[in-house]
Write a structure and sequence with these properties.
heterodimer, A: mainly alpha, 2 domains, two-stranded antiparallel ribbon, elongated, B: N-terminal domain of TfIIb, Rossmann fold, 5 domains, seven-stranded mixed beta sheet, six-stranded mixed beta sheet, 29 strands, about 30% helix, globular
């Protein structure tokens, strides 16, 4: 069982425990409790008042807080996964292409060659460091809002520049990158995102036509969902 | 909610004990609650509003205005998107919707600074008698040009003037110049720098298929499983196309790339098989491949029977005669002269013939050759013999060096022997057709083809051409045997339309005319796969600079040919030429200006507005000129059969000797384009390429004591030049390489000006030279 699954189970248990605790606390008449009565928990014996106060704290404060932390962690980690992106149908052409061994897009080549073995969407679309992760999360949230409120048209288009730092994470310092004179010529421009790596290294995802529902290219691409591979 | 002692506000209707709660029940009044709610509501609206504005109101791309355009460098003709802000170009990206699917190279990427480069010519200039150029008005400059032209014409007739154009002028400009000179001035002294790079490809295709221009398209790269790259280095010279090849290989790892080049170029480095023949001998390879294909029964007999005719160059011969001719070219008989082992030749022939789809790609390595036409027609012949044509991925494809050599020069017929849309000056019927279409009296067009590029400058040397207009090219640096023709240019009255004030040719000009560059004017470019794409005007030219079309219209007026040149704007010329084309197999009448504004270019034939254009020529269902049921029809030939010629190998005039024991070959580097007039001024590109240098194999350098960085003198029977040596095993022993972009290493002064007898294209690729060290590193 991987860490995510552990967290998921743990969060569920915490939620269930918290709900049970909260119900018990809600049904308890605190004024009728007698301070002299005590409850033994095996290793420790508490007065009933202290026990129910602690239970109230656990059920009403600690368990929700823990559940929130665990749920956030789960969401934070879960949205790294390709399937999280695939949750919105507008992303499906990208994901179908990514998983297509017959595709020559940058994304598909990075996936099938295991250059990015897992979480490929997040691997290229989160900027460097914690702030990069947060920015990616914020961007994901923005997508979610637009998607659920219906403020989008298909095919969706990438807005602004793709941050070259995502390429540099792996490619900077490699012989293949450093030995090319052209890279050195425009290094400053690459570093400042003035020039995009994809300018010379091509299309990352399916063409706009293949991302437009109703088009022949879209139909051809989406055939792969049924396990049919494009052949030429 | 609603608990009496909860301390929370009690809302109306919430079941509280009183409609007017006292201050003792809550410290908050109803008014406070309403204020709070209003505040929260207001803040939410503000936040939501700001988000909506940011999300929905701002166009993609950080507030830039994006316009579709076309790269103005090589013949790949990449579609680009130009990002503008405050009237300036700030970004250029590949166009995702264009044929290049969003890719460009480093040169295309740096187009963003092109129009802002310092040193632009902004006012006309006239050379005074003391040799100094001084500013002048347009009226003074054009008045002088017209006067000199008229003087020369009245003295020695129309052939005393000439036009030397470029594969970078827009189609409308080359078409107008061609019409003005051939039908107005009545001289065929119209040639172009495209003669220096594409003439052999044009004559090769014309001889084989009856019509110029490639039958296939870039799209074929996505389907080929064998690439035969000969005399081309697409990694450096056509990077987006090489990337496309690489993509094909990554997708289909069994795709096989064969590279034939005397140098181990970056393309060769990435190929599955590299053959390095001795420069000038590769016709032996092609003939030997044909011999193996026919002798080993690799030929597509059915295809040959249906679509191919054999010829000895003069008359039709039968297949047996062709096979007999090839008997002298068995791999074993040619391997020593070629420098490639017989077994390797056989391997290549088998790959070529047996692959599911073979695509040949070539460029200057075959074109700039004494046997350029032979070589071109032989590559097509290999495709015809094996039936590797007319299917996706199977095609002989000649790559182009300039952005508009195909559309602008070959298709408009802006060469000394051509008329528009594949017609010949020497053909009376063709002349008659063009005279009718142009509405000029019969006999207007001179029946004598004019001089080709090199001979045009020789005519200046001899005083036959006394006044010439040069547009959008730098012949003082790009011609072979360059110093000789620089002297010739000095003898002639030279009007030069230029973008920079200090190019090598500008130094020789008598009148300098400031020209608009790239998106400072509007026009159509036709790239290597018959695709016409529109470049719209996005900027005003600097100072008083004008488009070349404006200059030609002005000259026409001043020479009294205003009535002939009725189309005065780019759109008007396009419309005239579009309708003109309907009379030919080049028919692109369906490419209206409006369509070109919307679409990412269209490939001709495209006879009507409903036509999507033609990806593969001569193929039923794709090419509108192929009749139903024909399958494939090479309709350029009278019998609809493509021709396979017997092409005997004759040694190049450039042969090594005791005096000149090595061979020099020239080419491009990735970061620079042509003579570097533009790319040489772009800091990033200049830094990348560095100064030009001689690449020498260590085995040639060591006996002469030459180390990397040493200054060496390279000498041929034409001239000598000194430069830095760079030792590399990428060169074949016995072969030096240099690029021609650097004015400080004017390599073309050394290069031979031997011409292909048919295409008249100079043999830049083979020059016999000697070498000596003249200085330490």
């Amino acid at each position: 069982m991987d860490l995510q699954r552990v967290v998921q189970v743990l969060a569920t248990l915490v939620c269930v425990a918290g709900i049970i605790g909260a119900v018990i606390v809600a049904r308890t008449r605190f004024r009728s409790l007698r301070p002299a009565d005590s409850i033994s928990l095996g290793v420790v014996t508490l007065s009933t008042v202290a026990f129910y106060k602690l239970l109230a704290f656990a059920g009403l404060a600690a368990a929700p807080a823990a559940a929130m932390v665990l749920a956030n962690y789960h969401t934070f980690e879960g949205t790294h996964e390709v399937r999280a992106c695939n949750g919105c149908h507008v992303m499906r052409p990208m994901v179908v292409d990514l998983m297509d061994p017959g595709s020559d897009t940058l994304a598909a080549r990075h996936a099938k060659n295991k250059w990015i073995p897992q979480d490929q969407c997040y691997g290229c679309h989160s900027d460097y460091g914690l702030s990069g992760s947060m920015a990616a999360k914020a961007e994901g949230f923005r997508h979610l809002v637009r998607y659920t409120t219906g403020f989008y048209t298909e095919p969706i288009r990438f807005r602004g520049h793709f941050d070259n730092a995502n390429c540099f994470k792996c490619h900077a310092g490699t012989e293949a990158f450093e030995s090319r004179k052209s890279h050195q010529d425009v290094r400053q421009r690459l570093a400042s995102n003035d020039v995009s790596c994809t300018n010379c290294h091509g299309w990352a995802h399916p063409t706009r036509a293949a991302r437009t529902p109703g088009s022949a290219d879209y139909a051809r691409l989406m055939q792969n969902v049924l396990g049919k591979s494009r052949t030429q | 909610m609603g608990a009496p002692n909860s301390g929370l506000p009690v809302l109306p209707g919430s079941g509280g004990p009183s409609e007017e709660p006292s201050a003792s029940e809550s410290e908050l009044t109803r008014r406070d609650v309403i204020r709070m709610l209003a505040g929260v509501g207001g803040a939410s609206l503000l936040g939501g509003g700001a988000w909506s504005v940011l999300e929905l109101g701002i166009a993609p791309g950080a507030g830039l205005d994006w316009h579709k355009s076309v790269c103005r460098f090589c013949g790949t003709g990449c579609g680009v998107m130009v990002g503008m802000k405050d009237g300036r170009i700030v970004d250029v990206r590949g166009d995702e919707l264009a044929h290049n699917r969003g890719m460009t190279c480093v040169k295309g990427t740096m187009l963003r600074v092109l129009n802002r480069l310092p040193g632009r010519l902004t006012r006309p200039r006239i050379r005074r008698e003391d040799g100094k150029l001084v500013d002048a008005t347009w009226d003074e400059a054009m008045g002088l040009v017209a006067r000199k032209f008229q003087e020369a014409i009245s003295r020695d007739g129309p052939d005393a003037v000439a036009f030397y154009g470029s594969g970078q002028l827009f189609i409308e400009e080359s078409y107008t110049a061609n019409k003005l000179f051939k039908a107005g001035i009545r001289t065929n002294n119209v040639d172009s720098n495209a003669r220096l790079c594409m003439a052999s490809a044009a004559s090769g295709y014309t001889q084989t298929f009856g019509k110029d221009e490639p039958p296939g398209a870039y799209e074929d790269i996505d389907y080929a499983d064998c690439f035969f790259v000969i005399g081309a280095n697409p990694f450096e010279c056509h990077p987006p196309l090489f990337e496309r090849i690489q993509r094909r290989r990554r997708l289909h790892p069994d795709t096989f790339v064969i590279c034939v080049d005397p140098r181990r170029t970056q393309t060769a480095e990435r190929s599955d098989l590299h053959l390095a023949p001795i420069p000038g001998t590769d016709l032996l390879l092609l003939n030997a491949m044909a011999q193996v294909i026919l002798a080993d029964r690799l030929a597509d007999d059915k295809f040959i029977d249906a679509h191919v005719r054999f010829s000895d160059g003069n008359a039709t011969v039968d297949r047996a005669a062709y096979e007999k001719f090839l008997a002298d070219y068995t791999p074993e008989k040619v391997e020593d002269r070629l420098g490639v082992a017989a077994a390797t030749i056989r391997r290549v022939a088998y790959r070529f013939a047996q692959s599911r789809a073979t695509m040949s790609l070539w460029t200057m390595g075959l074109n700039q050759r004494f046997h350029g036409t032979y070589l071109n027609s032989m590559v097509s012949a290999l495709h015809l013999l094996t039936g590797q044509i007319g299917r996706p991925g199977a095609t002989p494809f000649s790559l182009t060096g300039q952005c508009n050599a195909c559309g602008g020069v070959r298709d408009t017929g802006a060469l000394a022997h051509l008329l528009p849309n594949g017609r010949m000056v020497a053909n009376p019927k063709h002349r008659q057709e063009v005279e009718t279409l142009w509405g000029v009296p019969s006999g207007t067009i001179s029946p004598t083809p004019g001089p080709d590029a090199v001979n045009m400058f020789r005519a200046m040397e001899e005083g036959k051409v006394q006044a010439a207009l040069v547009m959008c090219t730098n012949p003082a640096q790009s011609l072979p045997n360059a110093v000789r023709y620089q002297r010739a240019m000095k003898k002639c009255f030279l009007a030069v339309a230029e973008i920079f004030e200090d190019s090598e040719t500008a130094e020789l000009a008598d009148v300098l005319l400031p020209a608009a560059l790239w998106v400072e004017k509007e026009g159509v470019l036709g790239q290597g796969e018959r695709r016409y794409q529109l470049v719209t005007k996005l900027l005003d030219p600097p100072g008083e600079a004008r488009s070349d079309l404006q200059m030609l219209v002005d000259l026409a007026e001043r020479l009294g040919h205003g009535e002939l040149i009725q189309a005065r704007t780019s759109a008007q010329v396009w419309d005239e030429y579009r309708k003109f084309s309907a009379s030919s197999y080049y028919n692109f009448a369906g490419m209206t200006r409006e369509r070109l504004r919307k679409e990412r270019g269209l490939q001709w034939p495209c006879p009507d507005e409903s036509s999507p254009g033609t990806v593969r020529r001569y193929v039923e269902g794709e090419d509108p000129f192929v009749p139903k049921g024909a399958g494939i029809a090479f309709y350029g030939q009278p019998d609809r059969r493509a021709v396979v010629f017997q092409r005997p190998y004759l040694p190049s005039p450039a042969q090594v000797s005791a005096e000149f024991p090595l061979l020099l070959t020239t080419g491009r580097v990735l970061e620079q384009w042509h003579t570097g007039t533009m790319t040489g001024r772009i800091e990033e590109l200049h830094r990348g390429s560095g100064p030009a240098r001689f690449e020498i194999h260590p085995s040639d350098a060591w006996p002469l004591g030459i180390a990397s960085g040493d200054r060496i003198e390279v000498k041929s029977s034409y001239g000598s030049v000194t430069g830095r040596a760079h030792l590399t095993e990428a060169s074949r022993p016995g072969v030096l390489f240099a690029s021609f972009y650097d004015t400080k290493l004017l390599i073309n002064d050394v290069v031979a000006d031997n011409l292909d007898p048919t295409s008249k294209e100079p043999e830049y690729k083979v020059t016999a030279i000697s070498l000596r060290k003249v200085g330490e590193a």
